[in-house]
Design a protein that fits this description.
TIM Barrel, alpha/beta, 18 strands, 9-stranded mixed sheet
Amino acid sequence: MTITDNRYLLNNGIDPLALVEKYGSPLYVYDTAIIERQYKRMEAAFSVPDLKINYACKANTNINILKFLKELGAGLDAVSIQEVELGIRAGFRPEDIMFTPNSVAIDEVSAALEFGVKINIDNISIMEQFGHEHPEVAVGIRINPHIMAGGNSKISTGHVDSKFGISIHQLPHVLKVIEATGLHVEGLHMHTGSDILDANTFLLAADILLNTTHHFPHLEYVDFGSGFKVPYRENDIETDIEEVGARISERFNEVCKEYGRELSLIFEPGKFLVSQSGYFFVKTNVVKPTPSTVFLGVDSGLNHLIRPMFYNSYHRIENISNPAGKPRIYTVVGYICETDTFGSNRKIAEVHEGDILCMFNAGAYAFSMASNYNSRFRPAEVLIHEGKDYLIRKRETMNDILRNQVEVELHTEAMAKV
């Protein structure tokens, strides 16, 4: 089983069909060369004295990807204490990890403090508690700029009804809490959403945040989060990171002059760095014609890649086993006992049972959102680096399904009478 179309060869000529034959299906594959390309592209887009790129690891938490980004020079954006611990295990220095949780108790924030990581606080209640307990510890504050941005309501996080951040209109309250507790604020943070295409929208939110800097005399950094759009379709539009970089840099450097000293500019890209690096390979189990639709049932489902069902996201799907086949219209569905449609009415080269399909842009929010629904095993993960393939997560087995279950003997009264 070898690829017959060079368009589908992976970096350094690696044959994806050979990977599927070697590691099985379904299979996630990630390419470090694409991650490095995206990191360096972002690094080059900004002209500021101190730029920090913190990888938003919720996009993909495989420890090997964390280690690779650390080697490139990235810091880490963590949203849970578990991600903090993963970052420490991957070798990140605590001071290079930014912990920005949402709706967590003060206990989790205190646990992060014990690791020595940087902390962003996103609500006034925790601000008050933390300020009373740890006034000497420098923290950042996450501001909600009230800007509607993002490709889907579930990934828009900076609008007026969002649960994320402290409303910009609550700034007087924030300042009173700081005064009353002596809380040391070293940074300002925002994140307006994901898949932001319009540079002007991002810049408007950034300007709102920058205009608040004069209220905080001890700042060390301003953190703009991320949310840059990557292309999902062929010839798709994407965020012009070079334009955003040039315009943000100019405005940020002006603000630093007004502020009286240089501040660090931080971004937290996740999808931008890893989405395009990922490929998800599935096998066609059944070709099922109905009066109105031809379904392709594959050996995966929403348990492995939930983004199309949860976010209505688009993933390009192509038949890499028969790329020269006559194009036909199919709806690609999974094997889960729910409606789990990967793509409706897609033009795909003619598919036969056993053919391998590739779903593109599977590097972000794919495996990290996978589950064992229907008691299915989660797939293996493979990393391609400098022409070699490495297994970085084994395929699960029934032992993994049962690992934390505790079997007990139940004897009811009715059973006893029998």
